[in-house]
Amino acid sequence: MDTLTPPHGGGQPLLHQKGAETQAFGTLKQLPIGLGHDTRMYACQRLNRVLADTQILYSLYKKHHWLMRGATFYSLHLMLDKHAEAQLAIVDALAERVQSLGGVAVADPRHVGELTSIPRPPDGVEPVPVMLSRLLDAHERILIDARDAAARIAAEGDEGSADLLVSDVIRTGEAQVWFLAEHLVDTPLVRG
Asked: Boundaries of each Ferritin/DPS domain copy (predicted)?
């Protein structure tokens, strides 16, 4: 054996690989989970919409976390990061649910941008109350869609997806809305 030629495999990464798409977005592969094709297809479509919006909400939380200003900077900076972490966990749960139904989870940020219902914010910094209001608006859009999706998906017989929407998306979203909204109450810092 030539000592200059590595053995088969040799530890060299096979770089710059190309290949055909193995499953197109919007299609399903068959999995033995006891749910019909139409039910799974509908659930994947609805979950992907919520997933796209949740990815945008996560990004808004991170943006606003970085751009906080003023007397409440520290507490809001920490809270927004904590909320972002919770939203990131929801992103993962939604994506994994779509995959477990045999679908393809929306993942590329450019594709997410095409599917989201959440308006794009300005690229720069906004006043703190405007940033918080923007987060509240995004939450409300997601909550309205998630409630409708959960009810319709449950009616189709997919209790697993409905439970994910209610237990994770809706309950977490409602709690985060409460925390955000309380920061928009006009309360003096010094006098009562």
From this structure: 45-189
